[in-house]
Every structure is written in C-alpha cells, then in structure tokens.
Amino acid sequence: MVFNSDTTKSGVVTSPGYPNPYSARTRCRYDFQGRGKERIQIIFQVFDVYRPPEGTKECESTDSLVAYVQIDGKMEKIDSFCGESAPRPLMSNGPRLLLEFRGLTASRHARGFKATYSFLENFGITTGKQELSYPCAFVYNSNETMNGTFTSPNYPGYYPRDTECHYFFNGQPKERVHLHFHYFDVEGVLPCDSVSASDYVDFSNYLSRDRKYSRHCGQLTEFDVESDRSFFRVTFKSNDRLDGTGFNASYQFVSEEDNYTVKTPLSSSAAAAIDYSTTPQAGYYCCFSSLMTLVLLSLLPGQFQPMTNEIAY
C-alpha cells in the first residue's frame, strides 16, 4: 500500500482486516512518500499484535510491525513493535517511511493495529512561529507572549534521526530568557560530541557557538538555564544512530533586574542539580569564597587580570 502526500496529507492506517483479528501468514507493507521537508508522523491508537506468553522480549521472531527510514539512500530499520502496548508516536527523518506488518500466527484475540498518519513540515512542534528559511527552526518573541513551552521534534515520541532544530528566543531590551527543562532524554554521553556519537542540546547567547554553555545529553533531572542577553538560541541535534524521547521545556522572558537562581546540572550526565543558595551552608560558601578572593588579590598586586568570556564566532 502506498500513501502519497500529493493525494492526502493525513489519514488512518490499519492492519489487514481490522478490527477483526488478522490471519496467519499475513504480510503487508505501508509505504509513505512525502515531498521536500515533509516528515511522516505515526500515532498509534490501538496496538494488539500477538506475542506468545513464553516468548522473548524481542519482536524479531514473532508477529510484529517493523519501521524503516531512509538513511544515506538506503532503507534502514529503526524499530520493531509487538505485544499489546501501543508504541510511542513515530516520526521519519525525511519524506519517506516504510512500515512492514508480519502476522506469523493466527489468534482469535489479536486485532492488529490502528494508527493515524500525517505528513508534517513542523516536526510535530506546535509552539512558536516556524522560520521557513531553516530546515527546522522556531521563533519565540516576547512581544507576542512572555512565556510558554517548547519541545523536541515528535515529543513525547522518539525524536527523528539526522535532525537539527533551532529555537530562537527574542526578548526586548533589558530582558533575559529563563528556561526550565521538565524532562530531558537525549541519547549520548559526555562530552556530547561526534566522537562519542552523541545527540545533544546546545545553548548560546549568539547565533554561533557560545563556550559559556556546555552541550547537554543523556538522561537528566530537571534543570534551568538563563541567557545573558535578550537573544537566546537552543539547538537540538540528532545523528543517524540511536534515539531518545527528547525534551519538554518551558520558557519565560524576565527583566534583567529579576533575581533568579539558575540551577544547571554539574555535568550533562549528572543525576541532579545542586542549588547551594538553598542549603544551610549557603552563607559559609559565600563568605569563604569572598575571603579567598580578597586573599588572592592581596597576594597578586598588579598581576590580576579580569577574565573574559571567550566566545567562538
């Protein structure tokens, strides 16, 4: 079965015979073909594919639905689904997606699956104003709304592979951008670079890279990030290897006079962030730090030079 975006942009797809149980030795392919920047999103409403009780947790040797996307000109398998738990929403990395249903055995109770499909150009991101000059970019302006939410592509489903999305926050003069990440699951390990084949989220006060902020990846607890300027950029980047469920975050434009305590993970794989300002030892850390600064300055007269924030343009 072929689903072409020239014919329809959305619809329903089901296993053979649904809602009746599918027959043994059933095989069906669903080929979704979009155009240009379109991505295919599959949202499962019913999923009931037979798996024997004593069977393995893997879906390779039982009834299953297998998903393929196009990577470097070839169709590559990204996942397979079986059992009775509905998979998370699925999104392709480009304008092509192939689903293959394999019903090896017959069961009076296994109804198969029912899902909706959509050809999208917004990557499943429903907030902000899409900037069409980029493959994937969304703009948030404080003169339109002072707060809101933003997510990774296809959230809460697995984000698509080989995808880069930018989120641009534009405040008024003397405004800053405060971000709070409620959920964060981006596949990768420190230092979140290409050597470790990591996906990542990057932050910057500029359009270019900002060395003040480290890349974030892994599974993190809630954390906060705040800009130094009225402009702030967040970039999400995935490669063609593994998947995560991405992130869910909120933003707020605040006055630079507002006193926020910004909590960030000690590292991108930290289990929790520590906010010393809320601990009983806060006064000790503050006073000790100030005392050590005075001692160092007195020992290095004429040699102390203020540090500058090194920015890569």
From TrEMBL:
Q: Residue limits of the CUB domain?
A: 1-120, 136-254
Query: At the top level of its lineage, which domain of life is listed?
Result: Eukaryota
> Which Gene3D superfamilies does the record match to this protein?
Spermadhesin, CUB domain
Q: Keywords of this protein's UniProt record, alphabetized?
A: Disulfide bond
Read off the InterPro entries from this record: CUB_dom, Non-NMDA_GluR_Accessory, Sperma_CUB_dom_sf
The record's annotation in SMART domains points to:
CUB
Q: Does the keyword Cell inner membrane apply?
A: no
Q: What is this protein called?
A: CUB domain-containing protein
- Which organism is the protein's source? Trichogramma kaykai
